[in-house]
Design goal:
heterodimer; A: 284 residues; mainly alpha; B: 201 residues; 7 helices; 88% helix; elongated
Chain lengths: 284, 201
């Protein structure tokens, strides 16, 4: 019956099949995430050395990336650029309507809430995320993962969970550095390059910098560290198709993790600030 | 797909601010400025670097490892001419076209979110769109997008051609492509924004 239907309605059956494959892939992905998260206890208990090694590797980066300062250097660089963009665009746009003095407020308000989490997610996914996919993908292609399984090692715990733990732990200091760097860059651009007085900048900056914003922003960073590492380990773990397959897996992982992490940030922002914006400018 | 959460996030944070100072009607101008000058080009970067450049690098890297590039050189074809140049041209063109699409998607997303969820009047949103954002900003955004595509593909092709060391090498090259592309693109963004702001004032 199905064979007849397939012959009669080729396009319909092809679309249905594509939908079903996609649906199953999402299911497999979810299953992998659940297994990785469940194996975190195993990773701590059975493979503490590997977990430590992963943390060291992610903090400092590997090969050519280590030369230019590792993950810390790259994320710092990205956030410094973002801070300068805020300085350039914010100062000039605000000056257009005669309130250039509010650039400090602009930086304090936007940086912690939106810009820094977004830039950090890009940096994380590009550095430690893509690195993990590349490593795991190469292991899969070289059949090293199969070899580990034959030796009786729990591969999900040993390879995926250790990386997820390391990613989440590395994100915390990394994000703090990123935040400080971006604040510094915005201040530098506005005061040193565009010549606003530092007193004006600092006054508006510290008046509107809410400590709770920063705590929530760190919480968002941890959340997206988790999402990025889960997505990237999945794509690396399931790479196929030779050397080109590894590269493609990295590309697909970067795309998927960016979309899902930005979605997570959006939902977290709506949850945190949607009901109570926690913001008082006009004294209300 | 990526543009919607980005714009919605920006518009949401901006609208809280504007509603607080009683200027919710200006939300359209804010959305337009944010989308056209920053979010449009940056999302284009993410897509071009994350999707286009990585697959380009993976493809060229795999060919380098299988020694196809050496074979091309032996039969007298210049791989820069036959493989790199078309990719660079294609990537530049695609990111130009893509940035237009991203801006439209972002503005529609911002409109839907502001009007239906945060109760900004639709007429005010539309009429505010062109208050701060005009043709010069649009031209600058396109220049940025074109430069992004150009540099991302150059980085990807270089990394792909100079790859070595088996599948792990290709993976690492792709990883470096993403990192270097993002870094280069943010630097270009800062410079072009600064120059553009000076030029349009």
């Amino acid at each position: 019956m199905s064979a007849v239907a397939a012959a009669r309605l080729p396009r319909l059956s092809r679309t249905t099949k594509a939908w079903l494959t996609e649906w199953n892939r999402i299911g497999e992905q979810t299953q992998f995430y659940a297994r990785t998260l469940a194996s975190i206890r195993d990773a701590f208990g059975a493979y503490p050395a590997e977990t430590l090694r992963m943390i060291a590797q992610m903090g400092l980066g590997v090969e050519a990336l280590a030369i230019i300062g590792g993950t810390v250097g790259i994320v710092g660089f990205l956030t410094v650029s973002a801070g300068s963009i805020i300085g350039v665009q914010g100062y000039n746009s605000l000056n257009n309507i005669g309130v250039g003095a509010l650039t400090g407020f602009f930086a304090a308000y936007f940086m912690g809430r939106v810009i820094c989490p977004l830039i950090a997610v890009v940096g994380l996914s590009a550095t430690i995320g893509a690195g993990a996919t590349a490593q795991l993908g190469a292991m899969r292609i070289n059949e090293e993962i199969d070899a580990l399984e034959v030796m009786g090692i729990r591969t999900v715990a040993y390879l995926a969970s250790t990386r997820v733990i390391a990613g989440v732990l590395v994100v915390i200091p990394l994000y703090c550095i990123a935040l400080v760097m971006s604040y510094w860059a915005a201040r530098f651009t506005t005061t040193a390059v565009y010549g606003q007085s530092t007193g004006i900048y600092d006054h508006y900056f510290s008046t509107f910098l809410a400590p709770t914003d920063i705590i929530w922003s760190l919480f968002q960073a941890i959340l997206m560290g988790l999402v990025v590492m889960l997505v990237h380990t999945y794509y690396g773990f399931n790479a196929a198709g030779g050397p080109a397959g590894v590269g493609e897996a990295v590309g697909r992982a970067v795309r998927a993790s960016l979309i899902s992490a930005v979605m997570v940030i959006l939902l977290a922002t709506l949850a945190i600030y949607g009901q109570n914006p926690n913001f008082h400018l006009s004294g209300g | 797909m990526l543009a919607i959460p980005f714009t919605v996030l920006g518009v949401f944070i901006l609208n809280i601010l504007l509603l607080e100072i009683g200027a919710g009607d200006l939300s359209g101008s804010g959305a337009a400025l944010g989308t056209v000058t920053q979010i449009g080009p940056v999302v284009t970067v993410l897509v071009v670097a994350g999707a286009g450049a990585t697959s380009m690098c993976a493809d060229l890297g795999a060919r380098t490892i299988r020694e196809e590039l050496d074979a091309l050189r032996v039969i007298g074809i210049n791989p820069i001419q036959s493989l790199v140049a078309p990719r660079v041209l294609a990537s530049t063109l695609v990111s130009l076209l893509l940035s237009g699409l991203v801006m439209i998607t972002g503005l529609v997303g911002g409109f839907a979110f502001s009007v239906w969820l945060q109760h900004v009047s639709p007429g005010a949103f539309i009429s505010g769109l062109t208050l701060l954002t005009g043709a010069p900003e649009l031209v600058i955004a396109y220049i940025k997008a074109g430069l992004f595509g150009f540099f991302a593909s150059l980085i990807a092709c270089f990394k792909g051609i100079t790859v070595g060391g088996g599948p792990a090498g290709v993976g690492n090259a792709v990883n470096q492509t993403v990192v270097f592309a993002f870094m280069a693109l943010l630097v270009i963004d800062v410079i072009v924004t600064a120059v553009g702001v000076k030029a349009t004032l």
